[in-house]
Design a protein that fits this description.
By secondary structure, the chain is of the alpha+beta class. α1 links the parallel β1 and β2. The longest helix is centred in the middle third of the chain and has 19 residues. It is globular, with a radius of gyration of 17 Å. The N and C termini lie close together (about 5 Å). About 45% of the residues are buried.
Length: about 260
């Protein structure tokens, strides 16, 4: 049975509860993975989401920052929550669908503003988190799995508005891209978005600092949908809902979707 999955860094699920509800009404994905929920689990407004046909939820939360949640029309069960690099952050939740597919929802640390672990603790934490993810996938090779989330790295030259200008900007530095590639290789993950949309500039994030984000279009593709090779061929219809970034009081991220015939 086909199902559509969406990933979206919502930048506060309570502040943007109505935007989530609007998205669920208008797009109706079967599974929605949210990052940066900035809420304890018991404060997530799940009643409204359940009323819209999403009665199932697994989540990890913190007051004011981080936090990940998976909302679903389809029955699911929690399949783990890792604290990679022992940061004490709510950055991962996994759920198993009835068809056996495991969905991993990640919020990788942003890494601060200085791409130097000696000068910037947050950058070191980001690299350590990716290394821990790599080691986990080496130790337990995933199968029939989907990995989504705000990975806070735009790996390809056409995933950013200007490759050369961003080489020293956190999210596109060579060391981050290499760490991401090693983690991806460890799990033999296939980038589903780029499998479906192999060429051309593609972004999912535009800074709040840009007074006219749409016209300037200085974006980055920080949000990803990956799958293990055994199910990657079942994926199709990938898209980034750029227009959602233009909703009133939006997140700075746009939702990314893909459909799987499984």
């Amino acid at each position: 049975m086909p199902f559509t999955l969406a990933t979206w860094n919502i930048n506060s699920v309570r502040l943007r509860e109505d935007l989530v509800a609007r998205f669920l009404r208008e797009e109706g994905p079967d599974v929605l993975c949210l990052q940066e929920c900035k809420s304890p689990v018991d404060k997530i407004p799940r009643d409204q989401f359940a009323d819209l046909g999403y009665p199932h939820m697994v989540a990890r939360g913190q007051k004011g920052y981080n936090g990940v949640a998976i909302l679903s029309k389809l029955p699911l069960e929690e399949a783990g929550a890792e604290d990679h690099a022992d940061l004490g952050h709510a950055r991962h939740i996994a759920a198993r669908l009835e068809n056996g597919v495991v969905v991993h929802n990640f919020y990788v640390p942003a890494g601060g503003d200085i791409p130097d672990r000696e000068a910037n603790v947050k950058f070191g934490q980001k690299l350590d988190y990716l290394t821990a993810m790599r080691d986990a996938f080496h130790a337990d090779r995933p199968a029939r799995s989907i990995l989504v989330g705000d990975l806070n790295i735009a790996p390809r030259e056409d995933d950013v508005w200007d490759h050369r200008k961003l080489l020293k900007i956190v999210s596109h530095t060579p060391v981050e891209v290499e760490h991401l590639a090693q983690m991806q290789d460890a799990g033999a993950w296939v980038d589903i978005t780029r499998q479906d949309i192999p060429k051309g500039n593609l972004y999912s994030w535009w800074s709040y600092r840009s007074p006219d984000w749409d016209a300037a279009d200085k974006g980055r593709r920080l949000d990803h949908v990956w799958a293990t090779g055994d199910i990657a061929g079942a994926a199709h219809s990938s898209r980034v809902l750029r227009h959602v970034r233009g909703w009133e009081k939006p997140s700075d991220h746009a939702p990314v979707l893909a459909t799987f015939d499984l």
